[in-house]
Amino acid sequence: MKRSILIAGTLTAFATPAIHADLRASASYAIATESADAGGNRATSTTYTNDASLGGIAGISTVAAPAETAKSGYVGQLYEVTALQLSATSATVNEGGTQQLAGMQLLDDGSTLDVAANAIGWSVQSGPLTGISATGLATADHVYQATLAIAQGSYAGLSSTLNLTVLNVNSDNFGTYAGDGIDDAWQVQYFGQPPNARAAPNFISDGSGLTNLFKYTAGLAPNNPAATFTVLVNPVPGQPTQRAIVISPTFADRTYTVEYCASPPSWSTLSGSYAGTGAALTVTDANASNPSKFYRVKVAKP
């Protein structure tokens, strides 16, 4: 292409170099050379499409797999905010612990905009959270079992919720049931949510004479007077110097230790500890020739 300019009556011709575009390629795509006009053209390959613009302003690029869209370099971008999305560093939080919450705006083109945590209005919708700070730090309450909590956030006219699971990491720290030697879940099962004075360790709730602490340790229902723990001393057929100590009921998550003495309180262990069987457990005393001998059983629940 040539153009002519008249300068001081002299006609001078100038050659203008052609605008040049090259083949572009990378390890995963190649774009054939395309021509450039005032606005840039589209170049495509099997998996890649590029809408370029002329000059220093970048365009939009997309790739099919994995699906990605790059829009950096635009002077401006038009979009609509469709939702507020909340997140946390973990979906669980230990009772008494904290968890940092965050939020972002979802846009109509699938991209996102981060929102500062202190710009979001935080609140507890339900569940065992004692509160959420202005900076999005959620604090978990104590629970007797893993329990769902729901946090809520609001920003720019939109609101959203986030589920967190508060984990029970201490079995004896729930409300007025805390620190009494009985599993909080057991007390809630039989006596409901605290406070309830009938759930106290030394309370006898069924007239059986057995305290709640004993029934919990032995694996018995505290509100059933027929649920009792028995230790029987039986003779062993054909073995006059032996005795069979029959313990019932027993449970696999508990251990049982038989102790003996000729005269209390000087107790000794008979033959070590035994794991429960889910049924009656028999421990034999091979040396029961004394005219009198006392037995007792210790029950331990780890």
What does this structure look like?
With 302 residues, the chain is mainly β. The protein has 4 domains: 2-70, no CATH class; 81-167, Immunoglobulin-like, CATH 2.60.40.1080; 175-218, no CATH class; 230-300, Sandwich (Immunoglobulin-like), CATH 2.60.40. It is built from 2 helices and 23 strands. The chain has helices spanning 184-191, 212-218, and strands spanning 2-7, 10-15, 24-25, 30-31, 42-44, 48-51, 60-63, 68-70, 81-88, 92-94, 98-107, 112-115, 121-126, 129-132, 137-140, 147-155, 158-167, 230-236, 239-248, 255-261, 268-275, 281-285, 294-300. Strands 9, 11, 12, 14 and 15 form a 5-stranded antiparallel sheet that branches. The protein has a 4-stranded antiparallel sheet with strand order 5-6-7-8, with no helix packed on it. A hairpin with an 8-residue loop joins strand 6 (48-51) and strand 7 (60-63). It is elongated, with a radius of gyration of 39 Å. The termini are far apart.
Say how many strands there are.
Answer: 23
| Helix vs. strand class | mainly beta
Amount of helix? under 10%
Q: Rough shape?
A: elongated
* CATH topology assignment of the largest domain: Immunoglobulin-like
Largest sheet: number of strands, sense, barrel closure:
5 strands, antiparallel
Distance separating the two termini = 93 Å
Strand fraction: 35-45%
By CATH, the architecture of the largest domain is named Sandwich
Query: Any low-confidence stretches, pLDDT <50, length ≥5?
Result: 1-17
Round the mean pLDDT to the nearest integer and report it: 85
Radius of gyration: 39 Å
Enumerate how many helices there are, as a single number: 2
